[in-house]
Design a protein that fits this description.
Helix content is about 30%, strand content about 15%. By secondary structure, it is of the alpha+beta class.
């Protein structure tokens, strides 16, 4: 655990990377080479694990808090080498060794503008001294929304003196006692036991993807489980409540957790939005709050996702759902065969249409653009035509049959 001598350095590739935020949403760096150290060389990595910035720290937790709040979109992982005491020569040599290993300094070190974004408080853009504080508060609210979306749960406070100057930076957190650190790490371990890494490929492109999924809580119900899930995808945490029917996962010998992972893998593979706001449209999937049966109803092919691992078994599919089907056709006012059992509203004084069915009323022979008269709207009819109420029901616009033909057909009854 001793700090490397000035002549020795540690290869960047040999240093394990860790997530800036843990499963509990805390920034709590720990591990070999970090615990109990007084100074650090730290490399910050983005979501693709590309190095963005390499700097120095005497308080790794607060340094990571500041970097994360300043540039949340580029601060996902870190690598750190710790020292028992501040040793400028050794630390400078270590940073240079990492520059050399990368081939050149990362943009956060090489570009003066980028370096300022990492090393200086965030400028609110205020244009006057009077507007400095309001502008800084607005900018701080934007920054906090970004870090909360990334999953940070620990409380943060903004440096009030800097806010008055129109700048935003997180105030240093107080040092944690050993008991507090122990409790937080126990919470972290419990949550990490419920973390799942989901990997798949997009349905259309075949390109691979991966994302972490946290099963935050499980509640057993009479019919299965209610599960609260947090998905971290494209730098954003989304919360979901999912109802799992036991008839689904038991049918294929899967666990509830396996079912959860497969459902969200399917949603991402089909590029389903992972969060919805406001009133849903008819084609929107209710991804915030849904059941396993809704997934199968929306995507019937999902019934086969466990087929290979379960020896050909499929999830219950379409046939297992409740359906409302039309089993009787009741006709309409233009269909005498259907109307013969009912009086026809304003035409009731003329009696019922027919006592026997006829071979056909010609309805199926109408060409495109032809239609039956609306019996309640006689506008636009041929002024020379004199139709009985029943004939008005049968006579089609555009048909070359005469009114007399229709009257003859009616007389045949």
């Amino acid at each position: 655990d001793a700090a490397p001598p000035a002549a020795e350095t540690v290869a960047l590739a040999d240093v394990a990377h860790a997530s800036v935020t843990n499963a509990a949403g805390m920034i709590l760096p720990a591990g070999e080479g970090v615990d109990g150290k007084a100074a650090f060389v730290v490399a910050v990595l983005d979501a693709s694990e590309a190095v963005q910035y390499i700097g120095f720290s005497k308080d790794l937790r607060n340094t990571l808090r500041k970097l994360f709040c300043r540039r949340a979109e580029r601060t996902h992982y870190y690598k750190a080498v710790g020292y028992d005491a501040v040793d400028q020569a050794a630390m400078l040599a270590q940073r240079q060794a990492w520059f050399d290993e990368l081939g050149e300094p990362p943009a956060g070190n090489a570009d003066p503008r980028q370096r300022a974004l990492w090393e200086q408080p965030v400028d609110s853009g205020a244009v006057s001294e009077r507007g400095a504080l309001p502008a800084a508060k607005n900018r701080a609210a934007e920054l906090e929304a970004a870090i909360r979306a990334r999953g940070l749960t620990e409380p943060i406070e903004w440096n009030q003196e800097l806010l008055r100057q129109g700048k935003c930076d997180v105030a240093d957190a107080e040092a944690l006692s050993e008991a507090e650190v122990g409790a937080l790490r126990a919470q972290q371990e419990e949550l990490e036991s419920n973390m799942r890494s989901v990997e798949g490929v997009f349905a259309r492109s075949g390109e691979p993807f991966s994302f972490p999924l946290l099963i935050e809580s499980r509640f057993e119900t009479n019919g299965g489980y209610m599960v609260d899930v947090v998905v971290t995808y494209e730098d954003t945490n989304t919360n979901h409540r999912l109802f799992l029917g036991k008839e689904y996962y038991e049918a294929v010998g899967a666990t509830p957790d396996e079912m959860v992972c497969e459902i969200f893998k399917w949603l991402v593979a089909h590029k389903t939005p992972l969060h919805t706001d406001g009133t849903l449209e008819i084609d929107d999937f209710p991804v915030n709050y849904f059941s396993s049966s809704q997934v199968i109803q929306r995507w019937p092919d999902f019934a086969g996702v466990f087929e290979e691992r379960s020896g050909g078994k499929q999830l219950p599919g379409f046939e297992s759902f409740f359906h409302a089907r039309t089993v009787e056709e009741y006709g309409n006012l233009s269909d005498p065969d259907a109307n013969r059992e009912f009086e026809i509203g304003p035409y009731a004084p003329y009696g019922k249409v027919g006592e026997k069915s006829w071979a056909g009323d010609g309805k199926d022979d109408l060409t495109e653009g032809e239609r039956y008269y609306d019996p309640f709207d006689f506008e636009g009819q041929d002024e020379d035509a004199v139709l009985s109420p029943h004939a008005k029901l049968l006579h089609a616009k555009g048909r070359k049959s005469s009114v007399g033909d229709i009257e003859d057909q009616l007389a045949a009854f």
